[in-house]
Amino acid sequence: MEETPSNSSIYKWLMPLAMKVVTKSGLMERMPAFVTKLHLMMVSCYGRRATMEMTKQFIARMITSGILVFMLTLLLAAVTGEWLSVSLCGLLLAVLAPWIEVRGLSKRIRLQKRSMLIELPEFLNKLTLLVNAGETVQAAIIRCVDSRREEELSPLFRELSIMSNELKNNRSFARAMEELSKRCALPEISLFTTTVLLNYRRGGDDFVVALRELTRNLWEKRKALARTMGEEASSKLVFPMVITFGIVMVIVATPAILIMG
User: Fold this and answer.
1) pLDDT(2) > 60
2) Contact present, 109 and 45 (Cβ < 8 Å)
3) Nearest to residue 38, comparing CAs of 22, 25, 24?
4) Using CA atoms, how far apart are residues 45 and 57, in angstroms rounded to an integer?
5) What is the DSSP letter of 147?
6) What Å distances lie between residue 85 and 94, 98, 107, 165, CA to CA?
7) Model pTM?
8) 3-state SS, residue 201
């Protein structure tokens, strides 16, 4: 199971203080718009496990990060003797620390959605093959999920596993698909669930054709995402390459400068 946003050991000794600050100050009641937006992000990241208490813990973690950064800068100020300048920098960093926590959560959500988009076409390929071989849609989804039981479940298959368990417990297929779409909160998943719900009752060639067309479109989106990820990786390599080039220039030029000197 993934780590919840409040159980890192570095924060454990400060978290109780931060939780008291959040509770006593009524911070969640005073900023309903921010809390609602943050809770929706938590739901996108953790699914049905996300509760308001979990959101409260994340806010406490944001406060804890700010306190921890400020304490470290005060310690640095005590060592250097530069109280004013270091304390001002520490205050600025303490204000930025909660924003960095939120950015980290946003990045986690983005990576999770990318992972879902990458795996969805492969899942649809298997589903199409099984349905074309005569399986019902429900049985095909359950078989696809069961084939991954031995492996660590990815974000997509974690949600599909929840859906598979619901189907095994005789939950309505339409309701289970709708819940999957809400939990994933991804347009491509919503398109998949809509396509399935519109066509699965027809069965036969019409349903298989619809799945194949959807799979083809999602493969194109996956290719576009792969190109984007490649461009991002290339841009991240520019700075290390510049640093490496600078170091090589210094190594090459230093003997020549020393000789000329």
Assistant:
1) no
2) yes
3) 22
4) 15
5) T
6) 14, 21, 32, 58
7) 0.69
8) coil
